[in-house]
Each structure stands twice: as C-alpha cells, then as structure tokens.
Design a protein that fits this description.
Elements: H1 6-10, H2 12-29, H3 41-55, H4 61-66, H5 71-75, H6 82-97, H7 103-111, H8 114-119
Helix pairs in contact: 2-3, 2-6, 6-7
GO molecular function, one term: oxygen carrier activity
Protein name: Hemoglobin
Keywords: Heme, Iron, Metal-binding, Transport
C-alpha cells in the first residue's frame, strides 16, 4: 500500500462521495462563498468527485467526461478573492475532519488543496 495513490489510501470512491457531500453541505451554507455555486448541487458534487478522483491519483474520470481540467480557465467567470479561497479551504478542512481515516491521511489530503485554492484567486 506504500506506493498506492492517495485516492486509494483514503478509501477511493466511497470516501470521495462522503467528502464531496459533506464539503458542499458546508459550502452551500457558507455566507461568503455560497454565491459562487449557483448551478445544480448534484451536478457540482459529481464534477468535483470526478475531479478529485483524478487529482488524488485515481482514474482520470474528469478528463474522460469533460476534457482537461483547466482549473483556472473554468473558474475565470467567477470573481474569486483570497478570502473566498480561504473560506473554500475552511469548508474542505471541516469536511475532511469528518472522514473516518487516520489523522495523518487527513493532513496529507488537506495539504493537496491550499496551492490549488490560491491559484483560483482572480480578483
């Protein structure tokens, strides 16, 4: 298991479904960033699950369905400030904290997000 992807080590699809469900529960209730997520909640969660699968070393599901992630380009239409990125990270941290994985895996999983979240800042 030492060479297994983070996706596999956290529990694969089942864990990512739990993570995305809990994450978006926090996001859609967050007073600062809920405005950034105006489309269908189930569609948003599914896209995120597909992306995270790929992002964490699992199958390239997002690319198979939607093409290259092009994260920054896909987020340009939405004004995202540094405080929005921090709020997003706070929601992700809260969601990760609810998972039934080791604290070391929680830390490793969360460590994957700050750089990407800050890269989305465009205003």
């Amino acid at each position: 298991m030492e060479n297994a992807s983070l996706y596999d080590r956290i529990g694969g699809e089942e864990t990512l479904r739990t993570l995305t469900d809990r994450f978006y529960d926090f996001v859609f209730e967050h007073e600062l960033i809920a405005r950034l997520f105006k489309s269908d909640k189930d569609e948003i969660k599914e896209k995120q699950r597909l992306f995270l699968t790929q992002f964490l070393g699992g199958p390239g599901l997002y690319s198979e369905v939607y093409g290259h992630p092009r994260l920054r380009a896909r987020h340009i239409p939405h004004p995202i400030g540094e405080e929005d990125a921090i709020a997003w990270l706070t929601c992700m941290d809260k969601a990760i904290s609810t998972l039934t994985i080791s604290d070391d895996l929680k830390k490793e999983l969360f460590s994957r997000f700050p750089q990407s979240a800050m890269f989305m800042v465009n205003s």
